[in-house]
Design goal:
The structure is a single chain. By secondary structure, the protein is an alpha/beta fold. Helices cover about 35% and strands about 20% of the residues. It is built from twelve helices and 21 strands. Helix 3 packs across helix 4 and helix 3 runs parallel beside helix 5. It is globular, with a radius of gyration of 22 Å. Bound molecules: inosinic acid. The site of inosinic acid has 20 residues, from helix 4.
């Protein structure tokens, strides 16, 4: 069974792009299954950095067919810009396939995401303001426009006019904004975007299932992460899709019995962008060092990420929900100069100890981590390539994480480049 899922186990930005790129060499297909251009994957190849938002990281590998699956939401202008940007740097994007069932992000989704966040004031979610939530909301409400609608101008126009009437009423009456023009939207989507997107549209569910039968190797690439999952994350501070393993099934159309490996990616410490609880968050010079050494600014929005110590309680939960078969730890080298590194092994809330993520949100919001501390390795790991060359303190740390999570750690990242990793 040749299907592998790679997904984030924390709050995103774990370095999934690098891992996907690493595995892409052994894959025939790399598939995005949820989210949109709220994601930002950075891959460094031969010293050149590529920031991808929508196109699967596998595009950088010439033997891979990159697929944008049915579970993704697509801003066609952004997709075209990304294709053009890659092409201008010599990357061949002609193999890209886009599901006709994927939903389109429309200008009113972006506008509504922005104004709704502003309206929420101090209760805002800190979204990426890319229109992700409103697009998935319309999908669930069955009023969304899909990529395949670009192929039928009459249907596109009809659907647009019905939905825009409602959106304009909300924009004007609730948010005091100017209405959007159906003509302008239809012109951009049908005349500018459709001719570029049409050749890429494909029945990706059939394509991928045929590939499964032909024993092709498929990688399902998650965006965002387990604790941003609409069902399993720290609701309401989550994204509007399912980055967890279940979402990979729904968002690609590949059945669960075909999945052979589920690889969870976790940073050696922890980061989060946007609002929401974060028990192991740090604010002192440790935060400065993590931000500085880890370049913890969003690939996508440029926002400074919140930082903290590794939280094994979250990882145990992620291992359960996703039935992880292994874990890849990234950015271990960021911890190189620390005298002490910490891992949260449980929480305390209202005088009670919790060894797993508290079920009740208000308990979780007050959770104080119970840490185990480890001596740092205090040396440069960036050039280490073999397990036997890792200092014993670093190996102890990794082995402790593995034991805590209950799933083997099989690879550790020690720098941003493709070759900077160690097999454990
Ligand atoms: P949305 O996905 O734009 O609706 O944002 C919802 C929440 O998910 C916010 O807290 C975002 O900061 C977070 N988020 C969305 N995409 C990413 C990502 O790729 N990495 C990290 N956080 C993300």
């Amino acid at each position: 069974m040749p299907v592998t899922i790679v997904l984030g186990t924390q709050w995103g930005d774990e370095g999934k792009g690098k891992l996907t790129d690493l595995l892409a060499g052994e894959m025939d297909f790399v598939v995005r299954y949820q989210g949109g251009h709220n994601a930002g994957h950075t891959v460094v190849v031969d010293g050149e950095s590529f920031a991808l938002q929508l196109i699967p990281s596998g595009v950088l590998n010439e033997s891979v067919t990159p697929v944008i699956g049915n579970g993704v939401v697509i801003d066609p202008g952004v997709l075209i810009a990304e294709i053009d940007q890659l092409a201008s740097r010599g990357v061949d994007t002609s193999r890209l396939k886009v599901s006709g069932q994927a939903h389109l992000i429309m200008p009113y989704h972006i506008e509504l995401d922005r104004v709704a966040e502003r309206h929420l004031g101090k209760n805002s979610l800190g979204t990426t303001k890319r229109g992700i939530g409103p697009t998935y909301a319309d999908k669930a409400a069955r009023i969304g426009l899909r990529v395949q609608d670009l192929l039928d101008p009459k249907i596109f126009r009809q659907k647009l006019e019905v939905v825009l009437k409602e959106k304009n009423a909300i924009l004007a009456k609730v948010y005091n904004r100017l209405p959007l023009s159906a003509d302008q939207i239809a012109d951009a989507y049908l005349n500018e975007y459709a001719p570029r997107i049409a050749p890429l549209i494909s029945d990706t569910v059939a394509l991928l299932n045929d590939a499964v039968v032909a024993e092709k190797r498929i990688l399902l690439e998650g965006a965002q992460a387990t604790f941003l999952d609409l069902d399993h994350g720290t609701y309401p501070f989550v994204t509007s899709s399912n980055p967890t393993a279940g979402g990979a099934i729904t968002g690609s159309g590949i059945g669960p019995r075909n999945i052979s490996r589920v690889i969870g990616v976790a940073k050696a410490y922890l980061t989060r962008v946007g609002s929401g609880p974060f028990p192991t968050e740090v604010f002192d010079e440790v935060a400065e060092q993590l931000v500085d050494r880890g370049h913890e600014f969003g690939t996508n929005t440029g926002r400074r990420r919140r930082t903290g110590w590794f939280d094994a309680v979250l990882l145990r939960h992620a291992a359960r929900i996703n039935s992880l078969s292994e874990v890849f730890i990234t950015k271990l080298d960021v911890l190189d100069p620390f005298d002490v590194v910490k891992v949260a092994v449980a929480y305390e809330s209202d005088g009670q100890r919790y060894d797993s993520v508290p079920y009740h949100q208000s308990v979780f919001h007050k959770a104080v981590p119970i840490y185990e501390e480890f001596p740092g390795w205090k040396c440069d790991l960036s050039s280490v390539r073999k397990r036997s060359d890792l200092p014993k303190e670093a190996l102890n740390y990794i082995e402790f994480l593995s034991q805590q999570i209950g799933v083997p750690v099989t690879i550790v990242g020690v720098g941003p480049s493709r070759e900077q990793y160690v097999e454990i």
